[in-house]
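Hey, quick one: can you model this chain's 3D structure?
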Amino acid sequence: MTYISSQPELSTDWNDICFPVEPVLLSDLLPDYDIIATDRQKLIVGHPTGGRKTLFGIQSADYTIIPNSAIREVVDELIADYQLLIKHTNTGEFSISIILPTSVSVGSEQLQRSLTITNSYNGKTPFGIQGQSLTALLDPLTHLGSSVYRNVCQNGLLGWADAFTDLPTYQTWLGQGAKGPQKMSATKASPIPLRPQRATADIRKLHQSAITIPLFQQQLRELLADHLTTGITLTASVYDHFQQTNMTGSHEHVLRELPVPVQLIKQARERLRLEERMLNSPPSCWLLYNAVNYALFTARSSLTLNDRYRLDERVFHHLAAQAYA
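Sure thing. Here's the predicted structure for all 325 residues.
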């Protein structure tokens, strides 16, 4: 968790996050000094458009920074028609939503399918696709995640239930207190086909700190192509159930029990009331979840983007346990 307070900013332009960034060795910056602290030798320096050069982090000597421009190249190569929504912080963290033309129905709402890619220059938010790390996604037994975009509040919602093979398995896990591994064997009547096995040598390379950008782009290209073929997911079914779960009279109690800082709960409460008026709808588990998600990703806080996603995941499972109880 970073100690610098930040508030995610919205952008629809790649150029806002594709500014120059480079590693600078401490020995090059301080040639007249003997550097004893050898565990952190590489400075990550970026030059945001219209701003000053910024030192985002200090990493080990073999650390490889993934420039957002490398992500952009692969996305533009694979996807001809998409909308872009970026949430980024001045501390060098990025959540990139690639909003696709296809939609998913959740009750009376139409949500757009999306790809959510996270990255950072400060090392606080690891690179990931749909909430899963790059190395985890190389395992063909890992179920591909999903995400959708909700225009009402510009929320990007990750598929936190997609790691499970089916709804009964997920409900069993919730009934056990949401403890234990989420990853289930893909041989158990999974609705998601097995993906091709990646080369062992490639997996070993990506488990190391230092990877080359061409290798990264090769793996990203294959993984995004896999995600683009993903069909209806388990999380979409949970969303439907959320929308059918009326929380009139209980939402205040549920809000107070959520594993979220008190200040964010206050903002979520305000957002919930606003959406009730906007949609002329009583409080539901669906509106409550979206209100908390909105607060998590718009509020000024010392939470990193990764912290916010981890809290969002906990909130999702907490509400699912309530809705299916």
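One thing worth noting: The longest helix spans residues 305-323.
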